[in-house]
Amino acid sequence: MSEDTDRQARLAQIAQIAVALEEATGCPAPMMVAQWAVESRWGAKPCGNANYFGMKANPRDPQSCQDPTVEVVEGKPEDETLAFADYGSIQASAADYAALITTADPYKAAWAQYLQDHNLDELICAVAAKYATDPGYATLVTLIAHQQNVTRAIAAARQKGPNA
Question: What's the pTM?
Answer without folding.
Answer: 0.90
